[in-house]
Design brief:
It is built from 15 helices and 28 strands. It is α/β, with parallel strands linked by helices and 557 residues long. It folds into three domains: 4-136, Protein tyrosine phosphatase superfamily (Protein-Tyrosine Phosphatase, Chain A); 149-252 and 408-553, FAD/NAD(P)-binding domain (3-Layer(bba) Sandwich), CATH 3.50.50.60; 257-406, FAD/NAD(P)-binding domain. A hairpin with a 4-residue loop joins strand 12 and strand 13 (241-249). Helix 3 crosses helix 4 (98-107) and helix 7 packs parallel to helix 14. The longest helix has 19 residues, at 454-472. The chain is globular and about 85 Å long.
């Protein structure tokens, strides 16, 4: 018997027999529901046999037959009502369990998000892609097919999405392009480290989305519920359908604040902050500026995360401020990193270690933040050193800067576009999807093994645009991505270690060493970060002007 749990109250299975009922009762089920019509298979016991035996074991038994491949809207409504009536937990069965999973998925459409429904059914081994529009439409069959159609649809209006839309328009101005994003505000997220360090003000990092959508590009202000790549369709919340000839997927990633127990309840108070949120970065500076003594913790979760250097950037700018204020000797700085190294590219580590020593910071590797109690000023870390049992340790704090765990957005992880880990599955050179030839991805959401930074998206946008236009014109990919990413490590106010690297940790400096030696802290790199990169972002990258980002041509074979 193959019983699969879908929710706390429902499990499903293929056809059961009378002989299975004792085990079903022993497992704690209180009701069984048959969704398979009698006589569908030659080896199938009729429901009355099951019901009589179930009653003797104290199990409630209900019969809601559904024809294979024809789950009607009223069937789903009846299943939802039945689930309200019968004692729980419930085991529903049919020939394979698929009809049961489908009925549950449709019946939950008003109570759960599409992504959560798809994730629950997928975890039980059932793919609900065929009914995703109905789920998005409140469990009912939509009356229409497509609300709009475009040459190119871009999912995501962040740095990657707007940049690639602008690059496409600059290459082929007659393209009908739509950007799908529900947000009103677009943020320059690389600036939040500087806000937390007292260098920038938060409003400097925000502009309205409408002011940044490239001219001639349509903005669909909605969230995406699901993808139907076999039909070249994107399903929006409310079951609106947008069709495309080609699709670019770049919605960024999800900050999973809830993965750290107690974190959500205490963010922004009790000394708990994070530069990973617009409204919290000013609180970071408030804490740093007001701290004269005590313990300051800085955390980094398991990879991947966006801007892997950001957790320690907060440490460096804080330590520099305390040093200049003459209070550093009174502050215990600790960096708790779930990984085993300070930075993933070894060439930059010596310079960073000098600053760790300057600020007298303790490095705690293989330390992953799992819980926090803000009012009690306590944090708990799981310490998972190699070949050693995991140990949970408690650490007191006066201030803690948290970098949250991160993953692909829910609607990506449960989609046909995702790999086993939940990221969009692309060829790391062309950034084209491995299974769907008319889909590309860039930015934080795709699975190429590069650093997830805005600088990476700046390089990727023209590559995707070039290859997509080449595809429209009937050519093979023309541009290749070398994994470039950049992390300006703000080691002190006025100096930066400018880490620039590609696949495999290969150094990819943009400037000659006499101008900026990226392996050493320089004033020039700070000027780049503080004064040059913000206008480059707003006025070049997001407008299709590819300064220092021309695509590298595919090597001849």
């Amino acid at each position: 018997m193959d019983i699969r749990s879908i929710s706390a109250t429902l499990s499903v299975s293929p056809q059961i027999t009378v002989a299975d009922l004792q085990r079903i009762a022993d497992l704690g089920f209180r009701s069984i529901v048959c969704n398979r019509p009698d006589g569908e298979g030659a080896d199938q016991p009729v429901f009355d046999e099951i019901a009589v035996a179930a009653k003797k074991l104290g199990l409630e038994a209900r019969y809601l037959p559904v024809i294979s491949g024809k789950v009607l809207d009223e069937d789903a409504a009846a299943f939802g009502s039945l689930m309200q009536e019968v004692p729980k937990p419930v085991l529903a069965y049919c020939r394979t369990g698929t009809r049961c999973a489908t009925l549950w998925s449709l019946s939950q459409s008003d109570a759960m998000s599409v992504a959560d429904i798809l994730a629950a059914s997928k975890s039980a081994g059932y793919d609900m892609a065929g009914v995703v529009r109905r789920i998005a439409n409140g469990g009912k069959t939509p009356t229409d097919r497509a609300d709009a159609s475009f040459d190119v649809v871009v999912v995501g209006g962040g740095a990657a999405g707007i940049a690639v839309a602008a690059s496409l328009k600059s290459r082929k101005s007659d393209l009908e392009i739509a950007v799908i994003d529900p947000a009103d505000i677009h943020y320059y997220q690389p600036g939040w480290t500087m806000v937390g360090g007292g260098v920038f003000k938060a409003p400097q990092t925000a502009k309205t989305m409408g002011s940044l959508i490239p001219r001639g590009v349509h903005w669909i202000k909605s969230a995406v519920a699901a993808f139907e790549p076999q039909d070249n369709a994107v399903i929006l919340d409310g079951c609106r359908v947008v069709k495309y000839d080609r699709l670019v997927v770049c919605p960024g990633l999800k900050l999973d604040w809830h993965k750290v127990e107690g974190l959500v309840e205490t963010l922004g108070k009790h000394g708990v902050t994070s530069n990973y949120r617009y409204d919290l970065a000013p609180y970071t500076w408030e804490l740093v500026n007001g701290m004269k003594e005590g313990r300051a913790l800085f955390t980094q979760p398991p990879m991947p995360i966006k801007c892997a250097g950001a957790p320690q950037k907060a440490l460096y700018l804080s330590g520099d401020h305390w040093r200049k204020q003459g209070v550093l000797k009174n502050i215990d700085i600790q960096f708790h990193n779930a990984g085993g190294v300070l930075f993933g590219v070894k060439d930059y580590v010596p310079a960073l270690e000098e600053y760790i020593n300057l600020y007298n910071a303790d490095l705690n590797f293989f330390n992953n933040l799992v819980a926090i109690d803000g009012p009690a000023k306590k944090a708990w870390f799981d310490v998972a050193k190699p070949n050693t049992p995991v140990e949970r340790v408690e650490v007191d704090f006066d201030m803690i800067h948290v970098c949250p765990p991160q993953c692909a957005p829910d609607f990506i992880r449960v989609s046909p576009l995702a790999d086993a880990a939940g990221w969009v599955d692309v060829d790391q050179i062309t950034l084209r999807h491995k299974s769907y030839d008319n889909i590309w991805s860039l930015g934080d959401v795709m699975n190429a093994p590069n650093a997830k930074t805005a600088a990476a998206a700046r390089m990727q946008a023209p590559i995707v645009a070039s290859n997509l236009v080449a595809d429209i014109e009937g050519h093979s990919p023309k541009a290749q991505y070398n994994g470039y990413g950049s992390c300006p490590l703000t080691v002190e106010r006025g100096k930066i270690v400018l880490a620039e690297f590609g696949y495999g940790g290969t150094l990819l400096p943009s400037f000659p060493s006499w101008m900026i030696d990226g392996t050493k802290p320089t004033r020039a790199a700070w000027i780049l970060k503080e004064q040059i990169l913000p206008p480059v972002y707003w006025w070049a990258m997001l407008r299709g002007k590819e300064w220092m980002a021309k695509p590298e041509k595919v090597s001849a074979s």
